[in-house]
C-alpha cells in the first residue's frame, strides 16, 4: 500500500509533475486527493514508495517549506487577526519573506491590511492564502480544492493569478479539484484518482484520448466480452458507458462513439454502478515522467517539481 489514513488506503500511487507546469488532480469527494497531498507535503507517513519535492526526498529539510506554498479549502490563520497581524505572525517562518510584495498583492487583490480574517469572504480568504504563498517566493503551489464554494467571477480571478505565477518557468502548480472546467483552462497534466488508486496520469490530451463514451439502444452492450464498461447506465430507452479508447473499436457500428469531456471521465470513473474497473489502473496508465517529451510544448524543465514513485 502507499499510505493509510484511518480505514482509508492509498495504493499503487505513482505520479510526477514536471517543473513549469500545472497538474490537475481530480477525483470524486473521498477518492483520496487530500490524503495524497498530505503525503506529498510530508504531513502524513507513507508505507511504501518514495516521494520527492523540488529535488528533496520527503520528509525533507525544514528549508523545503520556504519553496512550497499551500492553499487549502479551509482557513488556517486566526479569524480575529487583521491582515497586518497575519504578516507579523507568518514572516518569522520564512527567510525570503517580502513584506513589500505582500502589501502589493493585498492591494492587487482588493484586500485591506486592516480587515480581519474572519470577516473575509470565501474568495477573499483564498486570495489571502495565495498572497501569503507568493510573498515567501514559493516555487511550487499546492492547491487543495481552492475553488470549492467560489462564484464564477472569483474562480476566473484565481485562474488569472495562476497564469501570472506561471510566467516564471521555474514555477509549478498541483491543483486538486473536482471542478473540471477550471482544469480544462489551465491544466497541462491530469491525474485521476478513484478509491485510493491512480487511474490515469498523463497530459490532458492523453487523458481525453484514452477513453470514449459509447451510446446505443436498450439491447446494446449486452455481449461485450473483453470490453471494460465504465460507469454503465442502462434505461428502458438506451444504454451508455465509457470504455477505454482501444476497446471502442471492438463494438463495431452498433453504438455511437464520442470523445468524452473531462467531466464525463471524472463522473464515470467515480461512479460505482456499472463500473468494472475494480483494481485496474486504466488504459496505458504510467507516470508522467516516463513520457514527458510528449507533453505540452512550452519551454519548461523536465525535472520533477513533485513526484511519488511507487516501489
From TrEMBL:
Q: Does the keyword Transmembrane apply?
A: no
Which ranges carry the ABC transporter domain?
1-220
Statement: the UniProt record of this protein carries the keyword ATP-binding: yes
Q: Which Gene Ontology molecular function entries are recorded, alphabetically?
A: ATP binding; ATP hydrolysis activity
Q: This protein is called what?
A: ABC transporter ATP-binding protein
Keywords, A to Z, come to:
ATP-binding, Nucleotide-binding, Transport
Give the matching InterPro entries.
AAA+_ATPase, ABC_transporter-like_ATP-bd, ABC_Transporter_VariousFunc, P-loop_NTPase
Origin superkingdom: Bacteria
Name the segments for region: Disordered: 274-311
Species of origin: Actinospica durhamensis
In terms of PANTHER family, this protein maps to:
ABC TRANSPORTER ATP-BINDING COMPONENT (PTHR42939:SF3), ABC TRANSPORTER ATP-BINDING PROTEIN ALBC-RELATED (PTHR42939)
Amino acid at each position: 500500500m502507499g499510505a493509510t489514513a484511518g480505514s482509508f488506503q492509498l495504493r499503487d500511487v505513482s505520479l510526477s509533475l514536471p517543473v513549469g507546469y500545472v497538474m490537475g488532480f481530480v477525483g470524486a469527494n473521498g477518492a483520496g486527493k487530500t490524503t495524497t497531498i498530505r503525503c506529498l507535503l510530508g504531513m502524513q507517513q507513507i508505507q511504501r514508495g518514495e516521494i520527492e519535492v523540488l529535488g528533496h526526498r520527503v520528509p525533507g529539510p525544514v528549508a523545503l517549506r520556504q519553496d512550497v506554498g499551500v492553499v487549502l479549502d479551509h482557513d488556517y490563520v486566526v479569524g480575529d487577526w487583521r491582515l497586518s497581524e497575519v504578516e507579523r505572525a507568518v514572516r518569522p517562518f520564512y527567510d525570503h519573506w517580502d513584506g513589500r510584495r505582500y502589501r502589493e498583492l493585498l492591494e492587487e487583490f482588493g484586500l485591506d491590511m486592516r480587515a480581519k480574517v474572519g470577516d473575509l469572504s470565501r474568495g477573499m480568504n483564498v486570495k489571502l492564502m495565495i498572497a501569503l504563498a507568493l510573498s515567501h517566493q514559493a516555487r511550487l503551489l499546492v492547491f487543495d480544492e481552492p475553488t470549492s464554494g467560489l462564484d464564477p467571477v472569483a474562480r476566473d480571478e484565481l485562474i488569472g493569478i495562476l497564469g501570472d505565477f506561471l510566467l516564471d518557468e521555474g514555477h509549478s502548480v498541483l491543483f486538486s479539484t473536482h471542478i473540471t472546467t477550471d482544469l480544462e483552462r489551465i491544466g497541462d497534466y491530469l491525474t485521476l484518482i478513484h478509491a485510493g488508486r491512480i487511474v490515469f496520469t498523463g497530459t490532458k490530451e492523453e487523458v481525453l484520448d484514452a477513453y470514449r463514451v459509447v451510446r446505443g439502444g436498450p439491447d446494446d452492450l449486452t455481449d461485450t466480452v473483453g470490453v471494460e464498461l465504465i460507469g454503465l447506465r442502462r434505461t428502458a430507452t438506451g444504454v451508455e458507458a465509457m470504455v477505454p479508447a482501444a476497446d471502442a473499436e471492438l463494438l463495431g457500428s452498433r453504438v455511437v462513439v464520442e470523445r468524452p469531456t473531462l467531466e464525463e471521465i471524472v463522473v464515470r470513473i467515480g461512479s460505482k454502478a456499472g463500473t468494472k474497473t475494480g483494481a485496474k489502473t486504466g488504459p496505458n496508465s504510467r507516470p508522467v515522467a516516463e513520457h514527458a517529451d510528449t507533453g505540452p510544448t512550452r519551454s519548461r524543465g523536465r525535472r520533477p517539481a513533485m513526484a511519488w514513485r511507487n516501489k
